[in-house]
Amino acid sequence: MGMPESTLVEIRHVSKSFRAVHALRDVSFNVRPGEIHALVGENGAGKSTLMKILSGVYRKDSGAILVDGRPVEIQSPHAARRLGIGIVHQELALIPDLSVAENIFIKRLSGRLGFIDWHGLYRRAGELLGSLGFDIDPREKVDRLSVAYQQIVEISRELSENVRVLVLDEPTSVLAPKEVEQLFAALRNLRAHRAGLVYISHRLDEIFRIADRITVLKDGALVGTVLPTEVTPDDLIGMMIGRRLTAMFPKRGCTIGEEVFCVDGLNRGRKVRDVSLSVRAGEVLGIAGLVGSGRSEILRAIFGADLKEGGKVIMAARPLRINSPRDAVRSGIALVPENRKEQGVILSMPIRKNITMPSIREVTGSLGVIRSRKEQRLAQQYVDSLKIKTRDVDQEVADLSGGNQQKVVLAKWLTTNCRVILLDEPTRGVDVGAKVEIYHLINDLARSGLAIVLVSSEMMEVIGLSDRVMVIRDGRVAGVLEKPEITEVNIMGLAVRGSTAGAAAASQTCRRRGEER
Amino acid sequence: MSLRQTESGGSASQDHTPASGRPWHKAIALVLEYNTVLIFVVMLALAASVSDVFFTEKNIFNLLRQVAGLAAIGLGMLLVILTGGIDLSVGSLTALASVLVAFFLGSMPLLPALMLTVAISTLCGAVSGYLVAARNMAPFIATLAMMTIARGFAFIISKGSPIIIEDPMLNGFGSAYWLKVPLPVFVMAAIFVLVAFILKFTVFGRMTAAIGSNETAVRLSGIRTGWYKFAVYCVSGAFCAVAGIISTSRTGVGSPIVGAGSELDAIAAVVIGGASLSGGKGTAINTLLGVLILGMIGNIMNLMNVPGYPQQVIKGLIIVFAVLFQGWQRRSDA
Q1: Under CATH, domain A259-332+417-516 is a member of which superfamily?
Q2: CATH number of A9-241
Q3: Pairing relation of β-strands A213-218 and A35-40?
Q4: Cα B41 to chain centroid, rounded
Q5: Which one of A56, A363, A424, B221 is CB 3.0 to 4.6 Å from A80, fit for a cystine?
Q6: Which residues of chain A does B210 touch, with a Cβ-Cβ cutoff of 8 Å?
């Protein structure tokens, strides 16, 4: 830890409220040179408010901020940068059509007389990336890089402005395990160069691997700062939610029925190649694989969101003709898409209108006139049964937390009489508590006889929820794991190498197809 | 679940809308929410103060009759803009309809002539709609093409000069009254009620606004987004026919040059009415107010004997201020 007395940045008794709501109450926190300081807490615990104060987006109401031991007022993001504080947001802010080097030096592109010194630009960018331990071509366009590399570019951009304290907000939420390793290597490198890192994440396993200290916030207040060696993940969850979370993944104990849904020889571009799968009623089929291996693309092709180039989709032994999402919905297939805000909900519309979107005809009278009383009741019914926390069904979806937004997406599909639900990253950007609720919901749905296909980047989620796990590698089925073999090691083995010790590497086929006809 | 407290702690802040708090906060919020109404009222007050004749029955109904056509195309434009599109062809379609109805009257009775005119104009809208919805063409481009094509046909059919109509029914319609109200005003009212009803109570209206807000989410909900996008251009085309027919009946000629630039007036009316050009936001009543505001600008200045060129400058300034005003409103919402 070095000199315990020296801190790069120190926050002392900072409070901040928005109207009547205390977003932060008397929070103290510091970052030392050469440390990775994890900041954890549920959504709404105050992490982002704290970071926004640190990076000059918000002004604190009271308390003090010290940089290098001197009190400062951070009045703008620009001022924060001048003090050496940078932030890398969850949503990357790169310009996809520009090169790596242009992105890194976006604010200082022009040299003498307003001309760009390309040689110098590429050289300096290369040096910066090299110092992080990465060999990325500074001439490459950013949109051709993997997300992990894009993140490295974003970090480099901050470093190019002599940032000494770097805040990383959920940096691994879109990364595959291998990419996480790359990012961690870069972070360790920065730590070795005596930078101070604030690492915000929901992923506890990562925090235990990388963090030197962990600070927990809850309801805007400081719960405590601990060393990872002092606590267990369960302790940490306990600190975050105020109680111990014994069962993240509920045991189901339900009977798995007949095969209801299968896909045979699905093809679409390079991301979906000859994929076959089958799901039974009451079963959760997990699809695992690295980011970019084609998991989401499989779901999209099944659902008709992307046109498939070949393959059959079969429901209850009847082949379906699916050329659009509409066909899929009418056939009883639902998709909870990967990107909730862009694909799942209409943020500016009330909960009611979102929930009844796919089943609007159910509440429509003659001449296409919506029967509002009936619609109201239908929406209310699902708000109640899914425990969506809201004032009323007319509240805009934008006002809800991520978990509740995701429940709106689920509610939307439950109003249809779908038999198959395709879940694509159902808990992305959702806090721990809401995650558990969604896990319970998924189990309830399976118990009610739905067939569920679950894509998730969170290994624990796939393992904890699935009855079987299909592992995808480069768009192909690498293997299917049954219950005792569903382990992290086996999944990773298949995902990375395409083989594993105990796995049935055979592809799935529609077992009952022949018998039924 | 046990996590309810923590979550509600996070979302509680959203429960406080800017309107909560002191009464004058509420008043400001109310004014900002209904700022189109406010602009409208200010215009009325202005009109009353600068001219004695503004609030005469004759002037009011004259004004309403003048804007009836613009109201029709503006309300069609609103539907298109709600989906996130734009229809630049409305001015040309108005001219085409104006010419067509006069042309058809040369060889057939009034009713089939009207029906054929509406059908062709709707078909033109359908072509734009097809290009946008099925061929993924940018609405700006598709309707720009339709704009010049329709104008060209209007000139071809009329051979470049106005076609005089002799039908007494149609000729009388534009200048006739019922209960002292000019007949075109009833047409305007009917179209307004229709669009308001569609937007507020029907699936069509719901999906139109939803598509403009988030087309992907709507499509992934199993909704035929393409069909709705196609349909709004058809409706816009049909409303243009109404505007064209009104124009012909008022002036007594089918003219290939009417409606020049009225696509921009229609867009301006929709925007003054607080709609977002990126779609999803806008109401029929506000668009109608937008149309009236535009009409009043001209009317007031005519009453004050302001010449035509300064009128254009002032109109532009009013559009700028109306939209700036809405920008403040949006910020106060955040």
Answers
A1: P-loop containing nucleotide triphosphate hydrolases (3.40.50.300)
A2: 3.40.50.300
A3: parallel
A4: 20
A5: A56
A6: 346, 349, 353, 357
